[in-house]
Structures are given as C-alpha cells and as structure tokens.
C-alpha cells in the first residue's frame, strides 16, 4: 500500500478569475484503512465549472459550503480500488466517487453522504472509454438529460436554445435535443466554437455571444422565438431568452457561469414580468436530484455515441500537477467539450 | 335605447404614479346594434392593478399593447343586457365581459377575442352578491386558485408566503391556502393591513414590508423557511422569497406591482442562482389560461364565503366620475380587499 498522497488544495481565495497560483498541491501521509474503508487510485478527474462556486468566501443559500484555504478540493473522479476493507469493493474494481483532485482517495462508508452526484459507485464500462462516465454518460450527461427531459419537458418540434453549447454539458444537451426532434440553436464564446456547433455538432443555428446584443443575436437565429432555454450562464443570457420566449416556454437552469467570478452577484434580468405575460417558468435543478434517470440517460446517450449520431470532444490534462491549469483553462472557456485530468499511466 | 355613452379614456400617459388628471371621460354616441351585437348597461367595474401596465408607452413582450392617449380603457365588468341582436343573450340577462370603464358597452360577436379573463359570459349569481363575480368568484379568485393549486402545486403542511396579502387577490390566496392546510404568512404595506391579516383573516403571521429588510422580516415570520411564494410584487419581495425558500420550493408569479410605475424596469433579484442550489421554480401565469378551473374555484370559494370561513372586503366607488379616483386609490394601496366602481342605482 502506498504511504504517501498528494492533494490539490485551495491556497488563497481567487480575486476575480481563478489563477493557477490560487491552488497548491500538498503532501500527506496515507493512513491505514479502517474497517469499511476503500483505497482508490484515481485515474480520471472531472474538471467542472461548479467548483468555482465553492472557492469564494460565501456560497449561495442551499449550496455546499465554501472550501477553506488549505482544504483539499473535492470533485467527481474515476479510479481503481487498490485495497479494500469493505466487502462491497475488491481490488481492481473500477469506481466513480466524489474525492477527486488527489492521487489517492480513502473513502469511508460515509462516502455516499457527500452531496451532488452520488458517492462511491462501481462502474462497468463495457467497451466504452472509461472517462465517458465522467462526461456524456456521467454527471454532464445527466445534467443535460434531466434538464431537457424532466425539467423543461422537451417536446419534438420545440425550438431550443442551449448556451455554452460547446461545453461539456451544453454540447450533450444540444445534440440530445436534436435527436429528440427539436430545432436547436447553440451559442458559445468564440468563432471557432460556433464553427464547431454548426459543422461538427450539426446544430440548426449558432452564434458567438460577443457579436452583439444577445437578444438580437438570438432573435436572428430563432425568428419565431424559442420554447426551451437550457441555461448554464444566467444574467444577460437569461434576459435574452425571456425576450425571445414563446408563450408557455420553459427555462431549465443548471448553472450561472456569468456570475461565478463575481464577489457580488450581478442583478438578475429586469424582464422577469415576461414570465407572467407569456406564462413561462424557470426551474433550477442539480443533476444529483435525478439519479433515478441515470440508467435511461446512459442507455440513450451511449446509443447515440456508439453509432456516431452524437459527437463528444475532450480537453485532457495530465497529472495532478496540471490540474490547476485544467481548472483555469476550463473556467476561461478554452475547452470544447469536457475537460479532464488523467492521472498515472 | 339610450343614444349617449360615456367612456373613461387615457388622457396623457402617467409619469410615475397614476394621477386622476391622467384620465378623462369622453362622451360618444351609442351606435345602433348590428346583427350579433349586445348592448350592456354596466353596473360594476373591476378596478385591477394590471391596467397600470397598459398605461405606459410600452408593454412587456407577450402582453396586450399600450393604450393610446384618447383610447377608452377596458377592464372586467358586470352589467345587464339592455338590448340584444344576438340569440344567445336576452334583455335582463346578467353578464360579465371585458368592456368596463364605460356606462354602456356594445359587445360584438368577437367579444371573446379580447385577451385575459374571457369575453361576454352569462352569470347566474344565485343568492350571492353580484360583484363577488368580479372578486373572489371571478378573476381575483381564479388568479389565487390557479396560482396556488395549479401553478404552485400547494400541499397541506406547506409554509406559504403571500405578498400584497390584504389586496383583492392576495387576501383570497392567503385564506385559500389556510383552508387547504398550509401555514400562511402574509405581508402588506401598513400596520392597519397587518392587523387585518392577523385578526380578520387569521393568518399565522404577518408583517409590514416597510419595517426592515424583507428577507429578515420573512425569516422572522417563517424561521423554518417557505415552500411556496405567491408573488404579485416581484423585485425585492421575490429576492427575499428565494433567500427563504426551502429545497423544492415554488413561486407562482401573477404580477409585479413593484414595477408598474417604473418607466425603466428595475433589475431582477441577484440571487437567482438559488433556483439551482435549492431546486426551486418560478412560474408566471395569467388567470385567463386557467378558465377550465373556474367552476371548481367558484364551488370551493363560494362554500368558504357562505359559511364565513373566508372573509372578503370591498372598497366601493360610485359612478364613472369616481373611476379615476378608484384607480389611483387602488394603485396607491388604499384598499383592503377588492376595489370596485358601482355604476347606476
């Protein structure tokens, strides 16, 4: 059993956008396993924007508490069981869990109590790439699937706008909506990404949100209005969605990228009265509340990926030393698709 | 048949709060009835806050267009058929319709095309006061009923906050929630109204929203948080609701009183991310989309009113000449319960 571990910790709170120097890697001894515990060697780390929320000094009401300086980060990860004092797990088992951002995770029987997308879970990847279970077949896929199907009640023929559509969640949401018979508009933050949305993902329309007032860009892309907005951005994006919403429209809100770097949250849309005038609803959610849909999600999305009807991109960093760069790159929007950090091998 | 009519018209657009001088009464001849038309002598006018929205130079996307200076106002009314060229209506019939703010209404077969709460409809008041069909058994009642039951999915044991709870809609919503087994907190804009909410309506708690930061006032009134917010105010009230919302909470939004006087809409709540962190939804609606619930609503609320379990107050003005004062008083919040204008007799 290895005696030594490395963990990525918050060094100092970011002031504005996260810098790699805000994070530090600390060494720590690996304790012996107690009864019920499992030692996992992490092989893949999921690099997700929501972690930014917990790097500030306060988190929104209802959310997990902030990380304290010096505290190890946590996040979704995949690894291999190296040792086990738990009869449910044996060495060699492939598992997913919430103790990422470290080389090894010692996971107790309370592993499942960490919030969000489940605790220690055995994986059977069959013929599929293991890291997909952090992306389109994992938390990213479930966020897209639950938001469209369960929250927004997507119907064939709906016109759907997906913001951050070149990202890990957005790219799956946009393609899933297409497969479900919707007309799909995607937006992203660069011409390259717009090109990706149009050519690689085959969306019906796409725009760069820097190219003008978002309300006008969206109106040009969807002249008849939209029925569903898949929102991971908030702020001016949400306001534009309401302006272009058809009566009876639905917003599935899974994040607020526009606000994660702000110490003081920016004001909300000034056009919320359109919820009344058009009978529109905004519903927030977290994927972790929809684990009962995970099997259906995996079955449907794995099918699309296997036969090539759904594309999936990855930006992969290597080794825990690169995890800070992975985080800052993802938060800057350098990625197309999922950002991952590969450990070992 | 009378040859002469009087109509309340927009004189000049209000700059800030509505003044009686912004409205003018104009005389007009009454035309002969064409085939299909009905002449109604109005007896009760419903004085509702939503009319303020159409007095500005623009209305929100999806809403009815602004009134133009010189244009007669419209609004819910009850009257008696005086003459009819329509086989569905006979002289003496009691009807409700959308052509209020005038002594007589000439209603064509397209009367039902005016948006909102239905067109020309026969009423059978039985033993109940006629004007209740503009209030607790009419549009106000349906707004309360649809918002709580259909939109917010009210459950027994829910803790519910009703803003503007001394008003026409809020007072019914608050009492209906009580009857349905909820714990109900009401807020209003004066100590007298708070007293009314506590003593007359028997709510579990009440506060004057001027008495401090609304988030703190609400937290004191509902220390365990709220499950449902019945919103006719928006703005700082909505932000306070989100701060105090329990996971899975619902907001039924039927209006935005805080904003009706503003030329430029105020920013929305800066804490919308709590929709995500707590899995909360905000749903806007108009009563007119829930006419299929009107019979159930009338049956349930008439029962409560008959046996005294629901209280109902009215502020009544007399004659079309007083309609401008009725409007300004209601918009200032002088009323407790429903504001009405009685014509004739």
Automatic annotation (TrEMBL), chains A, B:
Keyword Oxidoreductase: yes
InterPro entries: ADH-like_C, ADH_N_2, ER, GroES-like_sf, MDR_fam, NAD(P)-bd_dom_sf
Limits of the Enoyl reductase (ER) domain: 21-341
Coiled-coil regions listed: none
Protein name, as recorded: NADP-dependent oxidoreductase
Name of one Pfam family that matches: ADH_N_2
Top-level division of the source organism's lineage: Bacteria
Keywords: Oxidoreductase
Annotated source species: Williamsia marianensis
């Amino acid at each position: 059993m290895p005696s030594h571990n490395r963990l990525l910790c918050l060094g100092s709170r970011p002031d504005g956008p996260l810098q790699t120097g805000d994070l530090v890697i600390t060494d720590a001894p690996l304790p012996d396993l107690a009864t019920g515990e499992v030692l996992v060697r992490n092989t893949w780390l999921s690099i997700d924007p929501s972690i930014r929320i917990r790097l500030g000094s306060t988190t929104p009401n209802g959310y997990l508490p902030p990380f304290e300086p010096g505290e190890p980060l946590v996040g979704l990860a995949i690894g291999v069981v190296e040792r086990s004092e738990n009869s449910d797990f044996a060495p060699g088992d492939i598992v997913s869990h919430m103790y990422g951002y470290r080389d090894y995770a010692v996971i107790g029987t309370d592993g499942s109590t960490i919030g969000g997308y489940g605790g220690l879970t055995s994986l059977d990847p069959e013929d599929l790439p293991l890291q997909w279970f952090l992306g389109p077949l994992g938390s990213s896929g479930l966020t897209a699937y639950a938001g469209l199907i369960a929250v927004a009640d997507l119907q064939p023929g709906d016109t759907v706008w997906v913001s951050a559509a070149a990202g890990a969640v957005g790219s799956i949401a946009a393609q899933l909506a297409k497969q479900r018979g919707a007309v799909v508009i995607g937006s992203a933050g660069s011409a390259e990404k717009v090109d990706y949305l149009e050519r690689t993902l085959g969306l019906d329309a796409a725009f760069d949100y820097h190219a003008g007032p978002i309300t006008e860009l969206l109106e040009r892309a969807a002249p008849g209005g939209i029925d569903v907005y898949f929102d991971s951005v908030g702020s001016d994006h949400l306001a534009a969605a309401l302006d272009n919403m058809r009566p009876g429209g639905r917003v599935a809100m899974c994040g607020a990228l526009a606000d994660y770097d702000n110490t003081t949250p920016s004001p909300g849309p000034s056009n919320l009265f359109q919820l009344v005038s058009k009978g529109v609803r905004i519903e927030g959610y977290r994927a972790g509340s929809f684990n009962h849909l995970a099997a259906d999600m995996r079955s449907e999305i794995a099918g699309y990926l296997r036969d090539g009807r759904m594309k999936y991109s990855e930006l992969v960093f290597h080794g825990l030393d690169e995890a800070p760069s992975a985080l800052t790159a993802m938060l800057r929007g350098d990625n197309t698709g999922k950002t991952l950090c590969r450990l070992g091998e």
